[in-house]
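Thread: Newbie trying to understand structure tokens

Hi all, I'm a second-year student working on a class project, and my supervisor (Dr. K.) asked me to get a predicted structure for one chain before our next meeting. I've only ever worked with sequences, so writing a 3D structure as a token string is new to me. If someone could post the tokens and maybe explain what I'm looking at, I'd be very grateful. Here's the chain:
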Amino acid sequence: SPSASPSASPSASPSASPPASPPLTPPVSILNDQRLRLLDALRARGIHDSRVLNALSRVPRELFVPTALRSRAYEDSALPIESRQTISQPFTVAMMTQALDLQPGSRVLEIGTGSGYQAAVLAEMGMQVYSIERHASLSRTAGLALTAAGYDVKLRVGDGTIGWSEFAPYDGIIVTAGAPDVPEPLARQLKLHGKLVVPVGDRKSQTLYLVTRTGEENWTVDDLGPFKFVPLIGRAGWHESDV
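---
Reply by user tm_fold:
Sure, no problem. This is what the structure looks like when written as tokens:
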């Protein structure tokens, strides 16, 4: 007799679908809970500026971390991103932003766009933000994340240690990598009474300094404590061969 067709064979049932992978981005309710816990932790560590805390509560940090790490977006820790760089710890972002103590509409230069998260926090606070990144691929990724989050930040690929003179002078400059000394070109691109936040030290650890321009050739320097950043590479920073 003729053999049974595959459709008639009891052993020819459709193969089972593979189990669904868990979502890489946690549900909004979980992210919101994590964000609230982070804000409580920042307050406990001395972040008191309500403008900074409000901005951190509104910026979706999960958009600025690699997809595989989105469940950790609201940990108070630095996380790896591409080009062997990191997205800064939220406490560090909050501390540096609080130290600038700027008003909405202030012009701010960021050195080291990285993930774009620090720029997003500044933009959320109403600043005019300009940001330089030496890695073109990082700048592109940050630009996409900033656009997705709804922030308008002017980005440039280049040597951030020499600043961005086209838009100088700045009310504030924030440097998100560790320098061997305060980069003079950046100090000179500050407005009178403008502030520069920059980590200075060796390649393993730094002291965070708040540099305030008090005159044409005068600056004051305040010590904000020890921090650890990736090295600042450029003409007024570390040479690439040093790191």
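A couple of things are worth pointing out once you decode it. The chain is about 25% helix and 25% strand. The longest strand covers residues 190-201. Feel free to ask follow-ups in this thread.
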